[in-house]
Amino acid sequence: MGGLAASGSLITPIDLVRFTLAYLAIALVPGYAMAALARPRSDWIERVALAIPCAYALVAVTGLATALLQLPFGLPTYAALALPITVAGGYTAWRRNRATARGGQTTATEVA
Length: 112
What we know:
The protein is mainly α. Helix 1 (13-38) crosses helix 2 (44-69), helix 1 (13-38) crosses helix 3 (75-101) and helix 2 (44-69) runs antiparallel to helix 3. It is globular, with a radius of gyration of 18 Å. The mean pLDDT is 81. 74% of the residues lie in helices and 0% in strands.
């Protein structure tokens, strides 16, 4: 009985690393950005906890949109919806960190 790296295994360690990095890039990063946009004043642990449900909701909305518009569902279609959300969430986090680094409290107008 061998481990994951056995010669007859279906998954190799490099495949496991690739899957983990792809899952982070495709699911968790847009999900975290969506959670940061939805709840800008929440703690980071709450945003991490909301990242997975937000990512699944993003995939579901993308699937529904492609079904209604009769587009092929794939990575380019998902990226067209996830990229603007990720950029907006990153910008919001950057503004929030910049405001707190100056010693001030973030307000709704500074975050939005």
